[in-house]
Structures are given as C-alpha cells and as structure tokens.
C-alpha cells in the first residue's frame, strides 16, 4: 500500500479492528517489516528520470498497534528502594536493608508474578489503592489489575549521584519503533538529554504546567480552526506536494552526495502525515478528554482525578490504543534527600505511583499490554522511615515515608520496567545485578556495560513485550545493541 | 523581589550617550568597580603554536564529505516570514498565536539525525499562510493575484505563480530559474488541479494548500 | 483584393525575417542576462542559511554580495559577509549564547537574560567593546540591549516578544560591574564573566542553573563542561588525597574509594571538576540563587556554607563530622573543605593525569577567585577547539573535518596563540563555513 491512499483518521477509527495493514500482512507480502513505501507519481518520476530512488520515502505505516509504553525519569535521585523491589530483595530483608531502602520492611507484599512493594510506603500504598471509585473497590483493583503485572530491571549502574548522572541519556522514546496513527511520542517536561538513539524521534512536547485535557487537545490540533482553510485531504495533498518539491529540487541541492539526505527526506516527509488528522477540531479533544472515553469512565470515577492525572490517563490510553507512541514524563524535585518526609518525600513518591496507577488502568481499559519504564539519574539512601499523614487521591492515610539521607547511588539503584498483561499473568522477567545481604547494596551485572546500555535493554524489553514477544531487531540496530540477551530482561 | 533596574539602567543610558560621543572602554587602569580582565588585551604566548593544543576529535558525518542542515527554532520562523516576504509576520495574527503553541516543539537541532518537530513546521506554515487569506481584500489577492471569489481553475496560473514566487524566496530564484524548475512547476500544477477536482474546495483552500506545501518544503526540507 | 490581403513582397519577407532574428537575439541576450549562477547561488544559500539561520532574506543586498564573492572563489569572504551581519548576531550568536546557560548546551526553552546578552556582546562586539572570547568567563561588566521600541537600553529579559523579533543584537550598551539581586556589586575577584550575571529570579541564566539550592557543585562543573566540552568522567581520577573531597561526600559510602560497577566518588569529587582545589572553592560559599534571585554572600556562616552540604540543617553536623553519632552524618571528616580565600590549583592531579595537557592549558595553574580562574581557563587551547566543534555542529554537523583542521581553525581565533588569533568567534564561523568539508 502506498501512503498516498485517501485515508483520514476517521477511517482508522471506524476500522479499528482492521486498521490499515498489520505487520503480518506486510510480512506476507514480502515487504520490509514495519514500513510501507511512498513513491512519486509515474509522470513526475519520468520527468526527473533517474532520481526516482531519491524520491522514495519509507514511513512507518499509520496503523494502530495496541500496546502502551511509558517512562518516568525521576530527575535528582529519589529513594529507589521504596519503589518496586524483587523477590530476592524481599527474601533477604532485614532492619539494615529496610532502613537503607526507606521502607518498614515488615509489610512486604508480592504483586503479580515477581514484584514486591511495601504496602505502607507512599509508593506502595498508592499502588494498592488504585484509581478513585474503581468498581469493586481496591480489592477488585488488586485482583483484576495488580495480579497481572510483573517486572524486571537492571540494578546498580545509574550513577553515584545526580550530578554525574544528569544528562547522560536516560530518556528514550518509541515512535520510530511502534506503529501508531500519529507517528510520534508525547514528551512531558522532558529537558534532560535523551539517549543517543532517541534524539531524533518524532514527538510532541508539553510542559507539566500545561498538562491538562485542554492542553493536550490544543497540542493535537491546528490553529486557526481549519474551517474554510483546509480539509484533511487538502492537508495530505500539501504534505505530498512538499515532499515532491523537495525531491524535485534534490538534484539542484546535491542531495545524492550529501550525508543525511535520506534521513532528511524520511524524517521531514513522514512527520507531516499525522497533521491531516489534526485538522478535525474534535480530534484532539476526543482523544485526550478522559472523562469522555467510555472505556475508562466505565471502570472508575475519572472526574475525581486531578486535571493533570486525567491528561496523563488519556495519554496512556492513547498509547495503549496505538494512536501515539510512548509517553515520556520527566519529574523534577527528586533530589529530595534531607527534605521533609511528610511535605516533600511522600507527595513525590505518591505522584509517581499515581502515574503508574493511571498507566495500568489505561492498559486494562484498552485491553492492551503495557510496559512502564522507570529511571533516575541517582538515588538517595535512607535512614529508616517516618510515619506521616498523606493524601492519596482524595484519601487520607497514615503511611511510612522514607527518611532520605544523602546521595548514594552506589548503594542501591536500578532501572525498572513493569509489564502488564491483560490476559494475565505478567511475563517472566529478570532482575540483573546482585544484592548484598547485609546492606541491600546492588552490584551491577557484568553484562551491563553502562547505564545507557541498561536504558536500551529495558526499552527493547518494553517493545518486545508489546510486540507479542518478538525481538525488536530494528530498534536494536538503531540502539547499536548487538547481543540482545545481554541487556534485555525478557 | 528586587531587581537591578534604576542604577544600572541610568548608567547604561549615560554610557549610550557617551558611546554616541565616542567613549572607549579599553581602559587599562581600574575604575570604580574594577575592570580586571575586561579589555586586558590578550598577548600571544611565545611558541604557543597549535602543536601545544591538546587532541580534538575529527568530525565525520558519513561517507560523503558534506551533509545536509536543518533549520531550527527562530530560523524556522524567520524563513517562513521571508518566504512570505513579510506579508505575514510572527508578531501578528494567526502566525503569532500558532507560534506560541508550537514554539517549544519546533526543531531545535541542526543535525537531521537528532532533530524532530517537522510536523510543527507545517502547522506554523499553515497559520502563517492563513494570515494571507483574511479580510475583505486579502493579501492572497493583492499580492499574489489569487482571487478568492473565482474558481480554482481560473486561478490556476496565479496559484502556480504564487507557489513559485514563495519558493523562490527560499531558494534565491532557483525554484523558477534553476535546472529543476520544470519539475517544480509540474508538482504545483498537479497540486492545483487536484484541488480543483474536489467540488467543495475553494480558491482560498487551494491557495492555502499551495502556500503550505511550498513554505514547508522551503523552510525545512531542502537540507539548507 | 485589398492592400492588406495582398501577399507580402520579397522585401517585406526579408524585413520580417530580420525582425524575427532581432527579436530572437534580444530574447537570447535577455535570457543570458537573467541566467542564474546555480553553483554560486547554491553555495551562498548554504552559507546564508547556516550562518544566519535563514534570517537573511535572499533579497538582501548582502546576499547578492555573497553570490558575487562565491563566484569569484572567495567563499571565506562570503561567509564573513554573513557573519558580520546583524543576522548572525540575532541567530547564531544568540543561539550559542543561550546554549551556554547549562552544560546540556541546548537552547531549547532558554530565555534571553543578562548572561546571554553578555555572551552575544562577546561574540559580535557591543557597547564599544570588541568581540572577545578570552574574557567570556572573567569580564566584569553587564551588557544591556537597546530596545527597538523605545531606544532605551534595557535588560535582555525585558524584551517583549515583539521586541525580540526586531531587536538588533549588535547594538548593545556596556556598563562596568556586575550586581547581585540586592544591588550589591560583586567584588572583582568573584566575577565569572557571564556565569555571575543575573538580574532576576527565574531568568534561566547559568547562575540560576549553577547556584540554585544544592551545593553549587553544578556551578563549577558547568563552567568546566561548557568551556572545555569535557564531561565529568573525562577528567576524573581516583589518585587523589581524600582531603580534596568536599566535606559533604560520605567517606563511608561503599563506592567512595573504589567504585563497584561505577566510578568511585573520590574520582570526581576529589580528582575531577568537583574537587575542592579545581575551582569549587571559588563558588561554593559565595553564591546562592534563591526565589529572589542571584545572591552574593559576602560573609558566609556555617548555615550558609554549601560546601558543608545542601541541607542547611545538617551543615553544623557536617562541619564537626562525628561519625560516631546516630544517625551517621553524611560527611567526609578528612576534607580540607574550601579555602576561604577561594584558592584553586588545577595542577593538582590534573598535571599528572594529563588533563592540563589535553586542555592545552597555557595560563597559571594556581590562583584565587573565580575571575582569575575564568581568565586562565580562556587561555587554554581547548576553549577555542571546543568553540570550533560547536560551530561545526551548527553549520555542518554532517560534514568532514580532520582534527588538524579543527585545531587550525581554533588557532585562527586563539589570541594567546603564536601567531595570535583574532579572539573573534566570527573567524571560527568563517573558517568552518569555508572549509571544503562543511558546506
């Protein structure tokens, strides 16, 4: 199928179950997996003669592949032990380890296949509570959703303290590797350096201050209103003409002998096609108004979420539905050692856990697999816990917040990935690295050469999971990973 | 919140006046706030040749000697303005409103391998072009000769000429006078005819389509 | 038969033939006159778009000048026309300046401020001062930009959106001295050129990046990273005395002396950019960036000393650093802490490990205060080499340069070199742009 067929986004919506060409179709037709080719019309091809090859675009098909991928990057280095840990860490738990991890250590609970939380930590309590008004309550949430997760990670390599780890490429993206309608990721307040392989990935960015349903609707729309100016088709025509003009002038500007010319044609050309969908003024709001998404509101009281949480929920849902690629969220203020456990540390940990709750709820509503990645550029070792009163959603709870003492990424740090399987249980996944029994400190596995390799491996694992277990070889090539087994946890 | 304002602004105004008269700041002695390091002119260090420099990395962008370049940020905005000969400007109208929305998403890197945001360039071009269609006597007519009330077919020559004119701004005349001018004209002709073939399309919409196409291409797709 | 319908006479036929030939000849000459010099125009377009970002319209007479120069084989001259224009100041100079507000060297999201204005002035000259790379980290001055709407000199952060679109960054006003947010003039010795300029809170300046909360480690690390292009780990070394590690780094951390799967703490904090002796003393306890803005601390107390840690409530504990206490304070009892005279000694460790050689360090290796350090930094070859690399990254990131070419271009701008370079980044720009491996 050439890209220039007269499709608009409504076609994709109405034909959701058979959206465009599936990867299976492409393979059956013997075409390169994951790509379709756009070619110039024959008349123009003959006009520019042998430059036909330079006019070819290869764009990822605008089809919706179900499966959500999201990442949190916690800038600064929170107390990592107070998030998810592995069964091996739970097994050796003692007072020293618990203190270092900033958890009570006596309220451990396994969720799904292999992840453990402390149910009284801010993080754990939030995960357990689930979304507001979940039909059946938190017990039902735990049964229907939390039982279907598993996780893995790479322990150790995420740098000794936040300064060394800052801007070392701990953020990624998936738009180039996942078939979606719009062909781009959503980045929220991303300002730190992306992984090398992710720096050119198509994405729309929004700040956390603007993260509301209205903000996202505006981001995914055209201004001024298209009425009387363009239609989806005429916007597509303009995109095709722009590509053709660039191709026509490529000889004048010597593209055939210039580095990056092919990437230029593909990146600039392929980026344009998603704009046709934005012409419809209802497009953005229909996608990102969570209260209007029946699959979500049937499960819990979406309107009880904050507007930022609603926006995040809708974003995760659209990632799960294949409209957008991944959702990458950078959260600052995590360099919180020495700060107040009640007013600073607990709210920060709750905020992150709430995002994961939104993610899991979105995947469940979309009946789609999900991979949630978590990285930080450092970590704060703790000296035990402090009982605090915190608000989780609209619920007040007494929980045990970490008393984060100082930068000590060398004690325990990890990049984590959480998998969700709508058909349950979560896939068998690994934690690499070893844990010292007396302290809980982590030692990096020898197969993980750097934090950048760890990031790549976890992203590859995330892609593999939503791709039904197929190794993402194209992504691995882009990431320059030769031996997938060294760095992946699936 | 305090701000340094009155003292330094006043000093600045005095200095501006003095500058007009011709004061020099290449003083060597130390005036009231100390100027060490200011304009202390550097002097070459004997035998400090390039051999004294440490290693630096070579640059290789690929198999070819040269590469393409991508417009970034304020460069994108300026190119759109220049493409439209400042008939639409980023400080007014829809162009201004759209820029507020897309500014942070425009390409920010000159290296195509690391750049993204090209979809936003098209959205900005869309907004800028729309400023040429507003009002009772829109610029699409007075500057480019495309009559909104006429049919697309009758406007075809003007539409193609408008496209070439805008593209010429981006290419210093190479669009209409270069070796590929015939191919470019064919693209624009096909585009206009495709718009004319849709009965509900107007000349305003055809103008928009041409304007968006040429300015998107000219701003960010030529590798310059 | 009427006269008009009579067949043409032979004389008439010849006349018509001649007229046709004359017309064809005229048209041919006209076409030749209009014929575009494609290769020269293409090259000039590349130069214009790369150096001015596309701000210079092709209708500007300067562009025609560039085409003519390229046609005459003078690509460097054409590049200089673009680099000496206001368009360069408004685009690339400003972009490079905004990038230097943090070590990420990314202009995205950055806003104009006193620090970036200072840098633009040092790139293109301003307020009567010539362009000067060598005093970027040391000049004791503030640069104001002339408002296009009022004609008055104002702080860059006061430019409205409309002003930003029309401001001419080559027109600036220089005022001696630098003030903090309280209006206190910084003593000369603590001035760090653009790094100590900030006139308001939330101005996205380097000072805001470096001195907000924390320990000000970011400030000195940022100065080194931005000036040299080196990353923290590039210059780290564990072969250093524990006394040179700041007091707030826990000596009992299992990774302090020997990293387990990561770099040892002492390597960066003692042997690297964050070492007490490599400039941290020049910034640690004298600056802060609060919700009010950039503040100079003339008389530090234990409570204000960031060299004792980021948490003011723990600084007394870290000062005494009694490791027998419970909970154990997070500190290094052996640390010298920072010298109140703000001494620095870059030869310590870096001389033995070759870092100074790698930097092409030619200035003094010891000194006191940030201004002396900043002035010394800009005497090293690496500053000019890194600017050259950055300019390449802007003009032709996918081009081809040998390391010798990079160093040669750096030499052309290094005023400390023998023969002296121009101290002018536009020399670097023209040198890069006219290199065969660029455009």
Brief sketch in words of this structure:
The complex is a heterotrimer of chains A (490), B (224) and C (439). Chain B has 224 residues and is an all-alpha fold.
Description:
The complex is a heterotrimer of chains A (490), B (224) and C (439). Chain A folds into two domains: 9-63 and 227-278, no CATH class; 68-220 and 280-487. Helix content of chain A is 34%, strand content 19%. Chain A has helices at residues 9-14, 23-28, 42-47, 87-91, 95-101, 122-129, 137-144, 162-165, 213-219, 232-248, 261-272, 275-278, 281-288, 294-297, 307-320, 341-366, 451-466, 473-478, 484-487; strands at residues 36-38, 57-59, 68-74, 85-86, 108-111, 115-118, 149-155, 185-188, 203-206, 258-259, 326-331, 370-376, 380-392, 395-407, 414-420, 431-432, 434-435, 442-443. In chain A, strands 9-8-11-3-12-15-7-16 form an eight-stranded mixed sheet, with helices on both faces. Chain A has a three-stranded antiparallel sheet with strand order 4-6-5. In chain A, a hairpin with a 2-residue loop joins strand 13 (380-392) and strand 14 (395-407). In chain A, helix 6 (122-129) runs parallel beside helix 16 (341-366). Mean pLDDT of chain A is 86; it is low at 1-55. The two termini of chain B are 45 Å apart. The relative contact order of chain B is 0.11. Chain B has a domain at 73-220. Residues 17-34 of chain B have low confidence and may be disordered. Chain B is mostly helical. Chain C has a domain at 94-377. Chain C contains 16 helices and eight strands. The model of chain C is unreliable at 1-5 and 26-33 (pLDDT under 50). The chains are: A alpha/beta (490), B mainly alpha (224), C mainly alpha (439). Chains in contact: A-B, A-C, B-C. The interface between B and C is large, with 87 and 112 residues. Strand 1 of chain B pairs antiparallel with strand 8 of chain C, so a sheet runs across the interface.
